[in-house]
Amino acid sequence: MPRSTVETVFDAPRDIVYRLFTERDSLSPYLPIQIKLVTAGDPASGVGAQYLLGIGKVGITEETTALVPGERMEYKIVKGAPVKRHIGTVDFADTADGRTKVVYTMESEPSLPVPASALEFGLRQLINQFLGGVRKALR
Questions:
Q1: Is 117 helix (H, G, I), strand (E, B) or coil?
Q2: Contacts of 32 (CB under 8 A, 6+ apart)
Q3: Which of 55, 57, 65, 84 is deepest in the core (most CB within 10 A)?
């Protein structure tokens, strides 16, 4: 299954970076798409939250499938994309100088025939766009 991973470091504490990723709709002002919470997740864990990413009512729906507070977030696409399976994983760790290391991985199995190299490139672009939104939000 095609996969892409991007590692980066944010000049912010881990709890703030983690919150931006897990409360995805807070990034809408910093991205070229809108992110809207459509279904709240479990009140205690946040798992099950669904977000619409797109323009207006057109887009994809992601569902949070796992959260380890401050350490890891996992989600899957549940609607709106021509994929059999799409999983996103974001890992968070402190750096020695008090910043936050993020390792963001997407893996996707398309429903349509797409060359793996093209899909991996596309996944990397999506990750980088999202990371850029987080950087803008932290300014």
A1: helix
A2: 129
A3: 65
Q: Are 49 and 36 in contact (CB under 8 A)?
A: no
How many Cα atoms sit within 13 Å of 103 on the Cβ side? 8
What order of strands is seen across the sheet that includes strand 50-55? 3-10, 100-110, 83-94, 72-79, 58-68, 50-55, 34-39
CB 70 within 8 A of CB 15: yes
CA 137 – CA 31 distance, rounded (Å): 10
Amino acid at residue number 63: E
pLDDT tens for the chain, 139 residues long, are 889 999 999 999 999 999 999 999 999 999 999 999 999 999 988 999 999 999 988 999 999 999 999 999 999 999 998 889 999 999 999 999 999 999 999 999 988 888 888 889 989 999 999 999 999 999 9
DSSP state of 111: S
